[in-house]
Write a sequence for this structure.
């Protein structure tokens, strides 16, 4: 077996973890290979705050043989050299005199720098980057690099870019297959849905994750709600206020805390006060707040104004667009991106098509933004 | 061989004709099969005004044997029983005592009614409809049924339905592969391109058919030009005024003929005066005029106002939409359908997706309208 083969095994191990259990950490797998080429230990990071993949792999290897001084450790992500929730893995590697470490992808966090630390301490460090490992931890890498959640924007539009008629009526543009895909695929792995109070009040959707044959799964919700309209007495029965046991609603308001002390705040609803100079909210502050609260990947399901604001601030990474087989020619029908800012053709946002998929007469186009 | 097999042969024969040579007639193929099952005559309609398929097939059969009284005639479309440009085929069939005729599709023109005429005269008439024959003469059938050309609307849009920025700049939304497809496939078989003087003057496109490795092919052009702006002296050099030898420009104006007598009209430019009560033009009059001038299939390549007007009057049959990987969030960017008329979601136009095709990051969605 080649290094790539062993590293692909660490990819499969890493992939077996539950994403929500691990976040905001990356998915990591590791194996210890003996001098004869046998895999004598393997493990993966299972739980945020719990042991790293290397710990499991080395512990298992030690049950096979005491001496690891002729073994190789394959690890899907650069080992850490700092003390976070757990002691640094580099010390464990050095302690057991593992002479060679092969790494499948690098950790962008400068605090990690395990590779150079190991090399400085006499370990042979090889880098053998696998594309599947880049993809696996795409959200983690993006969080590290951009200091914000990964944002996926989803919308269902007429083939001419409208999300609703001039009265705001949008039911049902997309077909049931498309709507099922949203639950089964898009909502399944994200940390939260982001929307606006306007959308929440107008559509009164539950915004959880429902897959046929399974119980509904709760989903964190981030609601941009400048004046805390969703807390008004008439909105008490909104479906988003279902009984939550392991999720929260973050109501983002422009009001200062003194102003909302009077509100009757339901359980599991957290009010976040963020200035809204541009009408949406200061995205730098929001981004930091969300990341601190382990909200690493966010699905935007909102109206055209919020969509355009996130777009303008380059806070959209992927777009899932359901093109539905209808036309609203009315100029006052609502646009999927709704901005009053003048924009020349040369200033248009550019994207890369990732895939196309048909659900009967709906077509799902998936794009990546070229920031 | 079954009747379907013989009729499929007539489909292949019919398909070998040049569409522009035959229009406004349908494509038709015919074969004469002897009592032993051999094909002893075959033919297809080659040229508008020339002999019908049945004539060629029967003539060839007569070179093999004088007596056709035990043969079967297979014909892709119901034979005619009236005198048009040529004598009725039913008389030829009766004259040669052909006892059995198998028909692959019916002619919607009530003047044709060859099947009942033959049956009334003792011929065994069988109908065996093949889907490929319906598709083959789709334009002809539509012309007969709706008394207008078939209209195909083509547009290249941002993924949110814009065709240009607020200044009208549209170059280049779609990529070169998409633009080549327009020439190689869409413009190739249509009788004319329909557009507006505004588009012609702004884009100054040639609007002919250019396929790499071939000489450019002329294309009829229908230009909605209310005030004959394209004939103004400053527009003399517009590329559409290339030297035409076998095509025409139809300038559709709201002006009465006295008003445009003063204009210096280039060769092969025909001015058509049609009332424009709705700002575009009376589509019933335009449709009759175009059909009379053998313009059976029209490609609409225009701006949002004309697109919406044709849409409103149910004068679009197919839509070819190139979804380009960019976003113009600006509300003042130009819409692919631009209408001031209020429209509810329930009144939106409904379509059926026919196919999807990718050209790099452009996606071509092809729809049929459900009128």
């Amino acid at each position: 077996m080649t290094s790539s083969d062993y590293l692909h095994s660490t990819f499969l191990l890493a992939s077996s973890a539950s994403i929500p259990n691990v976040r905001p950490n990356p998915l990591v797998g590791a194996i210890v290979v003996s001098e004869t080429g046998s895999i004598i230990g393997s493990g993966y990071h299972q739980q945020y705050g719990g042991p790293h993949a290397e710990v499991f792999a080395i512990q298992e290897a030690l049950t096979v043989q005491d001496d690891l001084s002729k073994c190789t450790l394959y690890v899907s992500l650069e080992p850490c050299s700092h003390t976070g929730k757990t002691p640094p893995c580099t010390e464990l590697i050095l302690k057991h005199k593992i002479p060679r470490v092969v790494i499948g992808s690098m950790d962008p966090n400068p605090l990690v720098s395990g590779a150079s630390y190991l090399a400085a301490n006499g370990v042979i460090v090889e880098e053998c980057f696998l594309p599947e490992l880049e993809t696996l931890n795409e959200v983690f890498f993006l969080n590290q690099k951009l200091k914000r959640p990964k944002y996926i924007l989803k919308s269902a539009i007429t083939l001419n870019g409208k999300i609703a008629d001039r009265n705001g009526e949008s039911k049902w543009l997309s077909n049931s297959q498309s709507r099922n895909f949203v639950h089964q695929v898009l909502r399944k792995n994200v940390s939260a849905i982001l929307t606006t109070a306007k959308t929440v009040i107008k559509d009164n959707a539950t915004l959880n994750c429902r897959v046929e044959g399974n119980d509904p799964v709760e989903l964190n919700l981030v609601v941009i709600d400048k004046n805390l309209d969703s807390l008004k007495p008439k909105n008490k029965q909104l479906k988003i206020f279902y009984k939550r046991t392991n999720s929260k609603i973050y109501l983002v308001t422009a009001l200062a805390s003194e102003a909302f002390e009077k509100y009757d705040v339901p359980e599991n609803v957290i009010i976040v006060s963020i200035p809204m100079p541009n009408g949406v909210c200061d995205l730098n502050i929001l981004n930091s707040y969300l990341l601190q609260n382990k909200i690493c990947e966010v699905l935007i399901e909102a109206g055209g104004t919020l969509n355009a604001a996130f777009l303008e601030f380059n806070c959209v990474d992927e777009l899932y667009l359901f093109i539905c087989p209808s036309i609203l020619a009315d100029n006052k029908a609502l646009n999927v991106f709704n901005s009053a800012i003048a924009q020349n053709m040369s200033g248009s946002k550019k994207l890369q098509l990732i895939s196309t998929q048909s659900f009967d007469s709906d077509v799902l186009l998936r794009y990546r933004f070229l920031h």
